[in-house]
Each structure stands twice: as C-alpha cells, then as structure tokens.
Design goal:
alpha+beta, nine-stranded antiparallel β-sheet, 30 strands, 16% helix
C-alpha cells in the first residue's frame, strides 16, 4: 500500500470527548487500532477503505464544510480543496485514517422510519467518502444519545440505525482548523541581530541591535543597544528585556485560527496592537502584526508574515509591545567602569570637584587615588565613585526641548589613556527636574533635582 511509511510516522488523532479538539500522539495504525475502546471488538463497519483507495473526504458540520484531498502519488500528502493553506500532515493522515475506517459500537435498530427522533433530519455532521475509482459513500451523524456516550448514525444504502461513540465521532464534529499547520518561522531569540517594535498606542518605533562601540567611553553593561526612538543610542535594560523576551519564547505558539473581522483589530493596514519584527544572526526573520486581545484578555489576534489568515496566540506573546521605550532603556546617567578612567570631575556654576586615579600594575589591582588634590584610600574613593554611578534618569522629555541658560551641573570623565572624554550636562527643565544632555546630544531624559542635591551634599562632606 502506498504512503505506508507516512502512516507509520503519522501521529494518530485522538478525540477528546465533547470538545472536538484533536490531540496528536505518535502511534502507528496497529497501535491506533489496539487503543480504541474495548467495545469495538463487537463492532459494525461503517467505512472500510484502504489508504490507497481514498481520493478525498468531505466533512460538513456546525463549523462549516471542507474537503480533504489525498495525494495520488507517494509523498504528495494531503491538501484542502479550494484552499492553499499548509496542513499538519500528521494530523491530516490521522484524521483520514480514522474516518475511512469508522466502526460502530452497536446496532440500535435494523430499520427505522422517523429520522427526526434521532436528529437525522438535520444531521450534526455528514461524511462523504470518494474513492479513486469514483465510488462514494455517505455517513450521517444525528443527535447525541441521552447518555451522551455517542451519536445516532446511519450510512447510505443501509436501513439500520447505529451508535457511533463520541470518541470515533470526534473527527466529524471538529473544525477544519485542527488540520492546519501550527508552526511559526523559526528565529533564534538568543542570537537576535535586530528587534523592531512599532505600537499604534505610542506611535513610536523601538529598534534594538547588538551592542557596538558608539562613544568614547562605554557607559552600559548591556549587550544590546536601543538605536530608536532616541537620537543617541541607549543601553537596554537587560532584566526588563530578558523577562519579556522569555514571555515571548514561552508563548510563541498558535492556539487557534480566526476569520478576519473588525474584532480582530487586523482589518486595516495598521494593526491596532502593533508590529514585532525579529531577525537572528542567521538572517531568519519573524514578523508579527498584533491586533486586539480576546474578550477575556487571555489571547491575542495576530497575522504572521508568510502565513495565510489570522492566528490566535497567548496574549503574553505580545508583552514586548506593552513596554515604552523608557521602560526598555537603562536609566543610568553614566555607567562607566572605574577601570576605564583616569579622572572624573563635577562642576556647578560655583563649585567643582575632581578625582584622579593611576594604576600601578597591569592587572589594576593596585592604584593611587586622589580627590581634590590629596590622596585618599581606595575604598573611600570607590565609594565616592559609586555615588556618581547611582544617578538615574526618572523620565523622558515628551516634547522637543532646547536647553537655555547656564549649565547647572557638568559631570565629566577622562579615559585611562588621557584622551577619551565624555560628559553629561544638566539644564533646568522644571522646578523638580533637570534635563540631561550627553556629549552634546539634545536632552532626552530627566533626572530629579533631589538626586543632584544629595550628590553635592555628599561631595561637600567627603573627607576620604
């Protein structure tokens, strides 16, 4: 029999009672037969076609109708008639096997006259099987029995009334979506080369790339940089980003499929949720257009580039879209390693301070430290330096801001080579905040004035 190897590898479709949802496992035809309910030993054959005899099968049920076509040649697999959608070939093979070899557990009557008594005047499902030589057979499901254990059932040309177990009827009552391929384009999230987020809510684009040298003295411990939306690259908050990337990885799976409609938020060119684009170092890409969440908020509608139709994912797959650029960014004003500098200075319009250090060995284990021109202990110097690192941005400037007036504070660093320099300048923004310009870039972030006052108080009282 042709395609034997495919069936041996196929995953058998098991039907959960009352749900119509297919659960796949890895059994062969022989194992599938032995796993059916014990009652099937005294069974009545409703359909009995060999694999190579089946040309197509049509299922009509409460979800609609579809026709599954079996490939004529070895390895051709299954396709849907009039629909170019990739299928899970294991699921399709399992369904075809179960429907071409249906067996009833019980003959209820040798003949009957009133179809309405058994729901057969308006069948809950109809199965039409067509063979390669043009033959056909039709099986109809009526209503559930009072016990709920199965369906009343008839087959064309046979006057008898049969009982078809809910287990066996699952393939007839399930939607076509159980056959759809649920795979997504593979991207290595641990080796991202580029991540882009566009959200309709904020109207801004976030773009994240691997870290690259972009300033005289590196001021971030992150391995990633945010190059949009800010004018100057900003280090990425590794913890926040990692948590949400992990949520994406755990929830990057298709739960179901949906028809296009206004409720999905994907009916227009601009998705209501936003767009997430990922590219790994191997050049593999994944683009997802997110729409609305479902009524219970647990799932989200999504259109995946390269896939037909709209899919439903767990809502947490879209968690990256809920983050603002500021939430994604490192908040350190200047996070420069002490091993990279030879001096630092702090200046206000009326005061100034300077610290210097010189390492005495290549391993940078021994050094000479000074503050305001006098020697200080290593521990005291490093504690002082930490106070500079603790300066944190507290917000971003929502509109374009042109600094004016005198600089209220300048924080500068000189590299260990004595040439590389970087600085942060603090300008009055409001009663409570300074706007900070780094290396001449337009100010984009705010810091509370109370932080600066605490630093200045520490400097004034520092004795080393």
């Amino acid at each position: 029999m042709k395609k034997r190897n495919q069936l041996i590898l196929s995953l058998t479709v098991l039907i959960l009672l009352g749900t119509g949802f297919l659960v796949i496992n890895g059994k062969t035809e022989e194992e599938h037969e032995s796993s059916e309910p014990a009652a099937s030993r005294d069974s009545f054959v409703l359909s009995d076609l060999a694999e190579d005899e089946l040309a197509k099968l049509k299922v009509e049920n409460s979800f609609g109708s579809y026709t599954l076509i079996s490939g004529a040649e070895e390895g051709e697999g299954f396709t849907l008639e009039d629909e170019d959608r990739p299928l899970n070939q294991n699921a399709a093979a399992g369904l075809a096997y179960s429907l071409r070899s249906l067996k009833s557990t019980e003959k209820l009557e040798d003949s009957f006259h009133t179809a309405a008594d058994y729901g057969l005047d308006r069948p809950s499902a109809i199965l039409s099987l067509t063979t390669r030589d043009g033959g056909s057979s039709i099986i109809k499901l009526g209503s559930l029995t009072p016990s709920g254990s199965g369906y009343y059932c008839t087959r064309e040309g046979d006057p008898a009334l049969y009982l078809l177990s809910s287990y066996s009827a699952g393939g007839l009552t399930a939607p076509v979506t159980v056959l759809f391929d649920r795979s997504l384009p593979e991207v290595n999230l641990q080796e991202l080369q580029r991540l882009t987020i566009r959200t309709r809510r904020t109207g801004r684009t976030i773009e994240i790339v691997p870290y690259f040298p972009y300033e005289a003295l590196s001021s971030s411990l992150s391995t990633l940089l945010m190059v949009k939306p800010y004018a100057r690259p900003v280090g990425v908050n590794s913890q926040k980003f990692g948590e949400n990337l992990e949520r994406l990885a755990k929830n990057l799976r298709i739960l179901d499929f949906a028809e296009n409609g206004e409720e999905t938020g994907l009916g227009s060119k601009v998705p209501t949720g936003g767009v997430l684009y990922l590219q790994d170092k191997g050049g593999r890409e994944l683009t997802m257009h997110f729409g609305e969440t479902t009524a219970d908020g647990a799932e989200v509608y999504c259109r995946v580039q390269g896939r037909e139709g709209i899919v439903i994912l767990p809502a947490e797959a879209a968690s990256l879209l809920s983050l603002t650029p500021f939430e994604m960014a490192d908040h350190f004003v200047r996070l420069i390693s002490i091993d990279s500098i030879s001096s630092f200075s702090i200046a206000t319009p009326s005061e100034s301070w300077e610290g210097t250090l010189r390492y005495l060995d290549e391993e940078k284990k021994k050094g000479e430290y000074s503050f305001q021109g006098r020697a200080v202990e290593e521990e005291a110097f490093k504690k002082l330096y930490q106070e500079l690192l603790y300066l944190l941005f507290e917000g971003e400037i929502g509109e374009e801001f042109a600094p004016s007036g005198e600089v209220q504070l300048t924080l500068s660093y000189t590299g260990i080579d004595g040439r590389a320099q970087t600085s942060a300048e603090f300008y009055d923004y409001s009663r409570d905040f300074y706007a900070v310009s780094i290396d001449g870039f337009p100010p984009e972030f705010l810091i509370g004035k109370y932080q600066v006052e605490e630093l200045l108080s520490y400097l004034r009282e520092f004795r080393g």
